[in-house]
Structure formats: structure tokens, C-alpha cells
Specification:
The protein is built from 1 helix and 7 strands, in the order βαββββββ. By secondary structure, the chain is mainly β. The strands form 2 sheets. It has a 5-stranded antiparallel beta sheet, with helices on one face. It has a two-stranded antiparallel ribbon with strand order 2-3.
């Protein structure tokens, strides 16, 4: 399953990832590094893609050297995509985090198709 996760900020995300075993540190115990792909505790596999800041159009139009373009502003939070291939739901997230499950929209582009089931993916790690 593919998920989008919004955490309050980068350090909060890294701390939560470390508590779940998805961070490694160097020999001195410093410099935390996210382990972006690997095997889950139950024998499945996962992939994490850090997006960071996400912006969306504000509705205003700006003009620059190449012409008009939409103004954008950052959406609050630190955004991450997570794919888990083990047939199970992702564990609960800490307070202050928000998890978005995969969805598909109907033809109107707004209404969520409640009958949608995400297709399975092949092995990634």
C-alpha cells in the first residue's frame, strides 16, 4: 500500500522513524540517517521517499520573465511517501502526524471512489 504521511516537521519525522527502527547512526552514535528501504519486521518490505515541503496554488497569478504562472504557498508539515508491501495496514502514527491512505477520485475530480482498492505491487527491496 502507498501512503502519504504529514509530520509536524523533519526532526519529528526522523525521531518517529528512529523509534520504529528505520534510522541508523554512525559508529559514534551521531548523524542519524533514514533507512529508505528494507525488510519489515514481519517479512514484508518498505520504501520511504522524503518529499519535505509541499506547495499548492493560492489562486493568484504572478507574472515573470517567462509569462504568467500560478503563485504557490507551502502546505504546513513535512511530507513523506511510504510504500509497504506486506499486506497489512501501516501502524498508527504519533500525535501531530497525519496519514493519508491511497485514494482514487471519480470523474468529477473531487469525490473519493469508495470502491477503490489499490493494486498490489511487486517486491521493492
Amino acid at each position: 500500500m502507498d501512503y502519504v504521511l504529514r509530520s509536524p516537521d523533519g526532526p519529528s519525522f526522523l525521531l518517529a522513524a528512529e523509534s520504529l527502527g528505520y534510522v541508523q547512526r554512525d559508529a559514534k552514535g551521531t548523524n542519524p540517517t533514514l533507512i529508505t528501504q528494507g525488510i519489515t519486521q514481519d517479512g514484508g518490505n518498505y520504501f520511504i521517499n522524503v518529499v519535505g515541503t509541499v506547495s499548492e496554488p493560492t489562486g493568484k497569478t504572478l507574472t515573470g520573465p517567462m509569462g504568467s504562472y500560478p503563485e504557490t504557498a507551502p502546505i504546513p508539515g513535512y511530507w513523506v511517501r511510504i510504500r509497504v508491501n506486506n499486506g497489512r495496514l501501516i501502524p498508527g502514527v504519533p500525535v501531530g502526524f497525519e496519514l493519508f491512505e491511497p485514494v482514487r477520485y471519480l470523474a468529477d475530480g473531487v469525490t473519493v471512489d469508495k470502491s477503490y482498492t489499490q493494486p498490489p505491487y511487486g517486491m521493492i527491496a
